[in-house]
Fold this protein.
Amino acid sequence: MSVASETVAALTVALVGNPNCGKTALFNALTGSRQKVANYPGVTVEKKVGRVTTPAGRSIALVDLPGTYSLRARSPDEEITRDVVLGRLASENAPDLIVCVADASNLRIALRLALELKQVGRPVMLSLNMMDIARRRGIDIDLKVLERELGLPVVSSIAVRRGGTDDLRAAVDRQLASLPSAGASSWRAPDAAALRGAQHEADRVLQAAVRHPGHRDPLTAKVDKVLLHPVAGMVILLAILFVMFQAVFAWAEPVMDLISAGFTWLGVQVGAAPLPDLLRSFLKDGVIAGVGSVIVFLPQIVILFFFILVLEDLGYMARAAFLMDRIMGGAGLHGRAFIPLLSSFACAIPGIMSTRVIDDRRDRLTTILVAPLMTCSARIPVYTLIISAFIPDRDVWGFVGLQGLVMFGLYAAGITAALSVSFVIKHIFWRNAVGEPFMLELPDYKIPQARSLAIGIVTRAWAFLKRAGTIILSMMVLIWFLASFPQAPEGAKEPAIEYSIAARIGHAMEPVTLPLGFNWQINVALIPGLAAREVAVGALGTVYAVEGGEEAAEKIGQVLKDKWPLATALALLAWYIFAPQCASTLAVIRRETGSWKWMWVTFGYMLVLAYLAALVTYQIARALGAG
Amino acid sequence: MTDYFKCYYEALSMNIRPTIALGDARVGFRGRILSLDLERAPTVGLPPAELERRLVELGFVEGAAVELLHQGLFGADPIAVRVAHTTIALRRREAMAVMVQES
């Protein structure tokens, strides 16, 4: 069922509220699975629309707008909220009714937003969400008084309970039945004095309508004593991260193997099918290998987002940012950049997708630019191949394995590079830019709801497949084309790839890559390796005509050891720390930043770093006699 | 006049407790906000008017009760502050603009 086609005639109701007010849970409770996530035109802000049928049978399009503290927009997300509420977006219907969502246990700041929304001149009502939690905590809210003092219809809701939104649905019906025509908007971006006045007014209303026990949520207070403890809090954060990573690698592996095997099987089936050679190669090496290389990351992405959503819904994410802020800040990164960068150790794609938790555009961009420098799992096959072939398996200082030490060094180099690059960006390129202060609300802890989690994971997984899939697939087809054309002549002795455009590019690149110690065979292998880093292993096998492809990694290692000097191997390792060898990541950067420019900036700076690192490594190694 | 204002003016007239910047307060500090003095946070990248608006948006207004709940490991920064019924995390640098009086 298409949402878009039905919203034309339907009434539009917009949900507006502070971050952490339970707006998304309410949206999920009201719309269930009948929701659609898309982008607002020209920006990467998510647009969430769902269809709701009210008790009176009205069909409404419910829009979940990004959380905000004021209509005075500071981030692209908040600009969308402002423009939709004010009816300024040509592509969107102005809302017929605005539902201001507030956390009933945390009303003070929300009431100020409600007062601001009143000025917009459109019908507004206030929905007090999480009423059950407020009652349990002894917060006594007199809805009648609140309604009178605020001058807005007020209704309570419990998004997470069956029937908890009945009152809200009925109230929306009542409002829509007698919609006054939208009056003139008296809203202007408030200055500090206006905000202050509104907050005093909100405090007055609060005083009249709400009896608050005064103390904090006792559970949150107790848990925070431990989780925000300067030392214990850090230790627990590290433990949580450790479990998360174990899960991303260990839990995902069987499923990834299964998906991989499935696509290999499919490839073999197509390979054996009675089709013209060219079509068969296109389907097998272009389409199936391309789609497979994307879908194989899905289990990792689902697990990662499961953890991120659970931590977010619990209210822990803001605490993690609090704990890490100082450390990240030293490198010019925002505290919230921590989780995205960490995710990038699994794969930069979900890492870059999760930078959405960073509000400020510059902080987010810096994080996106450095995320691909974290050592992702796709580099591991390449590192393992070269290390096991070239680095002797012996202990140094008596107890540390040299091979493991090199591996560790490669990871450390990636982290150091990421932090240095962000430092340089922040302190040299954006030196005069306004530094975003670290200010965020630490919400009370809440138990995540399975239903909301499931909806969140499914929409993200689907978004990943759809967004990344289209671009990645087209890149894969392009790379297949380069590696397959022109085709090998009849009776050719050399591997087919040597007659392709890719090989010509490899030869043409030789003068440039010679100072790095790369021969043309390496250059050729780097081209299909653009699709996904680990593909380079198989490609090296192809160029050196090793039978058995990726399974024969050990055999490839032996061949390489005979053909390459040590300096070349080390230079290739250095190259791989930095090289933008992943079309999927670049595609996701293009999607998430909404511009080709940042994709090319990432590609360019990583390429330069890779070249310099490989150059220095090769030249030094040769000077030391490893050439 | 609201109760908040009463408290505020009473505190001013009695003037028995020292006024400090929230950015200098220790964990366990309890008090009320007297004023926002943006000149006290000059190293912040934001223009003063913008910092003021952001602080007010998160509930830092005159008369609100504050309590310093937690602080970070390095340099005792950032801090977690209870402002009326909400908990806000911010850096001490920005908190220098919030003038508070112990209660």
